[in-house]
Design goal:
- With 270 residues, the chain is α/β, with parallel strands linked by helices.
- 34% of the residues lie in helices and 20% in strands.
- It is built from 9 helices and 8 strands.
- Helix 1 crosses helix 3 and helix 4 packs parallel to helix 9.
- The longest helix is centred in the C-terminal third of the chain and has 19 residues.
Length: 270
């Protein structure tokens, strides 16, 4: 695992990080700073919470188009462009790694980039010059299946690859716009504390860490923070790939909610 960096990021609300929204200022600063801490990757594999399919599916277009998968935003949100090239070669390598692990997988030569990709990558790598592919979630949202996808990706041999899980450690849409009462804050904070402990505590053995993530719904206020878990599961893939405690945890306030990002650095990078 020495040749790649892995990051789970809380990506914020739709295109808002790119629209100068003040509730996303911490996220903008974090993602800009994170890119400066990483060696520029040779390629990026990104798992977006905004793509679910019946089987694991990988973008295979050399020139992916933009998918504006949100509504109700200013016109500028529908003019965003991120012309990073795709990588059919990397897509086939990911396909083979999953296939070799017995995971059903297919390529999609038509699918473009959704906002789970182009919003954070615009902040991290604005030149859009790094070959990039997306990997879908599986729509049964089974945590063990997504941990297994991560483990299967350990077979990849791509030097200086960056793998990003693009989700959100808090994702209850109604609660983003509800009064931020002390009770709500406490629920948010207790789940975040559990998540930080689970991913960062180096005293945990990996069997226990795996079991905690597999049964994440038993965590304090788990279903308050995630009525539906699609924004958490990119983290399961990241951990399945890393197979160890994260090297770095960052707590951010986004849309008045505490949220987490985690990084696993490649071994030769400080």
């Amino acid at each position: 695992m020495k040749n790649l960096n892995i990051a789970f990021i809380s990506h914020g609300g739709g295109p808002m990080p790119l629209l100068n929204d003040p509730s996303h200022a911490e996220l903008v600063n974090y993602l800009t700073g994170l890119a400066s801490k990483l060696d520029k990757p040779s390629a990026i594999l990104l798992i977006s919470a905004h793509w679910e399919a019946a089987v694991a599916t990988i973008t295979a277009s050399p020139t992916p188009q933009m998918i504006y998968d949100y509504r109700g935003f200013p016109a500028a949100a529908y003019e965003l462009q991120y012309p990073s090239p795709g990588s059919p070669i990397l897509a086939k390598k990911v396909q083979q790694a999953l296939k070799d692990a017995g995971i059903a997988v297919k390529l999609d030569s038509q699918r473009g980039y959704d906002h789970g990709l182009y919003v954070p990558l615009t902040l991290m790598y604005p030149k859009a010059d790094i070959p990039t592919i997306q990997l879908s979630l599986i729509n049964d949202l089974d945590p063990e299946q997504h941990l297994a996808i991560g483990r299967a990706l350990q077979a990849l041999n791509v030097d200086n690859l960056l793998v990003i899980g693009s989700g959100f450690s808090f994702h209850n849409m109604g609660e983003f716009f509800a009064p931020n009462t002390q009770e709500r804050q406490l629920k948010n904070q207790e789940f975040e504390h559990w998540l930080q402990h689970t991913l960062s505590d180096k005293q945990l053995n990996e069997t226990d860490r795996h079991d905690l993530l597999q049964h994440w719904a038993h965590a304090p206020h788990a279903r308050y923070c995630h009525p539906r878990e699609e924004h958490l599961l990119p983290l399961h893939i990241c951990y399945g790939l890393a197979g160890r405690a994260s090297d770095e945890h960052q707590s951010l306030t986004i849309m008045n909610k505490h949220s987490s990002s985690f990084v696993w650095y490649k071994s030769e990078q400080s």
